[in-house]
Amino acid sequence: MSNRIPVLESLALCALTAAVLAACGVSAKEPTTTHVSATTAGGSDTALTQAVTDVYQKFFDGSTSADQKIAVLENGQAFADTIRGQADSPLAKGTKADVSSVKPADADHADVVFTVSLNGTPALVDQQGSAVRVTGAWKVAAATFCALLSLETQGKPPAPCAAGSVTPTS
Length: 170
Known about the structure:
Layout: H1 4-22, H2 43-60, H3 66-71, H4 80-86, E1 95-106, E2 109-118, E3 121-134, E4 137-140, H5 142-152
Antiparallel strand pairs: 1-2, 2-3, 3-4
Helix pairs in contact: 1-5
């Protein structure tokens, strides 16, 4: 019986990972909600926090179309097949991302802490992510999406995430 517990935990982790990744392309019955705390004072930091939060919310919202997700992801076209392939997965219903902090790293980069929940239950808590500003628009960093994809592939990055394939566009 003790051997069954690790197997069940592994299966649960795989199912959860699949659900989180599917959140990038599935319609959800409830809109994604995001709770944000500004990390620094000042109007520009508040604007940064809201802009980055909006991008994360759109990217993880199941009602967002694949094309819109591609548009808010850095180098989104490189991931178009992956995002479109996940678009019909039923696992993402009820998945959302809550952004807990956004901290500017420089004028075009921000560090993001977010939690992915499944049906209201936190699944991936306090994930470290990034946002980048590309031609004036904030986007989810490709490296953040690659980190989530690597969970699904057990540490083997998909082709667009391979070294040199994901080149920052900012």
